Write the structure tokens for this entry.
Amino acid sequence: DGGITQSPKYLFRKEGQNVTLSCEQNLNHDAMYWYRQDPGQGLRLIYYSQIVNDFQKGDIAEGYSVSREKKESFPLTVTSAQKNPTAFYLCASSKSGRAGSYEQYFGPGTRLTVT
Amino acid sequence: EDQVTQSPEALRLQEGESSSLNCSYTVSGLRGLFWYRQDPGKGPEFLFTLYSAGEEKEKERLKATLTKKESFLHITAPKPEDSATYLCAVQAGYSGGGADGLTFGKGTHLIIQP
């Protein structure tokens, strides 16, 4: 079955530690995205990537970093510089193209709690 | 700045009671408007994409429509399993990147009582 996997489902970290969230897709999509969701808030874009070895900052990139070494994988690192890291993190993927607007498919999410 | 406003924030209906959810948007050239369903603790599930004013799409008890300023998600004779948060999102005009993120509203939390 094609889809997007995120691991782990729940993650607990101490303040000051970096943590990496995994995202893998087997949909053969070129574009991948990371969003953050907080209670009562809409999803907010952290980073996105249209192609391997290229990525762009979204609206709230400060305190986060990403890499895109393989088409299937787009890991997100939450660094100690992120002031409020506790949130629900969602990874998505889509087709990519200059003329199109394509729906994004989401993974199941990772809930990160930092204390 | 692109903005998406959804109303109401929450809606409680009796089973079989039809209603509509609203999504108002301001965007610099709409490339696409998307509706998603999200269950608690899970990732959003794609429902519809609308591209231009006047367009309509249907799936089971759901029908999405689009005007130049807003979109509606009509729910006909809902069942308890339709209970979820419904999210609206827009993708702005081509910025040179070819694939940009979506701007989401805060969602409408829908509860269907048996």
